[in-house]
Design a protein that fits this description.
It is a single chain. With 124 residues, the protein is an alpha/beta fold. The protein has a single domain (3-118), classed as Macrophage Migration Inhibitory Factor. It has two helices and eight strands. The protein has helices at residues 14-32, 74-92; strands at 3-8, 40-45, 52-53, 56-57, 62-69, 99-106, 112-113, 117-118.
Length: 124
């Protein structure tokens, strides 16, 4: 169950944000072979005065945190990095140099899924 949080600066249109959510979701599906129904994405806007990148306050950037049930290979994670970075860049025109992605592997016992059971108990 991939869960993503995307932080960006304000200023994008509703259409751009929808495109971002859609493209990032599809990038996860394509790179991990995850079912779309399992993908969760939350978009957060952070005020420019609350961001500093390379010493520049308010510099445009995107920070993505991705939680995955443990067990993906390095190759799958590399494919995910590339696909998600490209999706962000193409959706909201942030330089890929200013996109950062952090993956956290979550033990199956520590991820709750549908019905309030652990991913392990659900057989994932």
């Amino acid at each position: 169950m991939p869960i993503l949080t995307i932080q960006i600066l304000p200023g994008r249109s509703a259409q751009q944000k929808t495109q971002l959510l859609t493209r990032v979701s599809q990038a996860v599906v394509d790179s991990l072979a995850a079912p779309l129904s399992s993908v969760r994405v939350v978009l957060q806007e952070v005020a420019a005065e609350h961001v500093i990148v390379g010493g520049e306050v308010g510099k445009d950037m995107a920070l993505l945190r991705i939680m995955l049930i443990e067990g993906r290979t390095e190759e799958k994670k590399a494919a995910l990095f590339a696909a998600v970075s490209r999706a962000v860049h193409e959706s909201i025109d942030i330089s890929e140099q200013d996109i950062r992605i952090i993956i956290t592997d979550v033990p199956k016992t520590d991820m709750g899924v549908a019905g309030g059971v652990s991913a392990k108990a659900a057989g994932r």
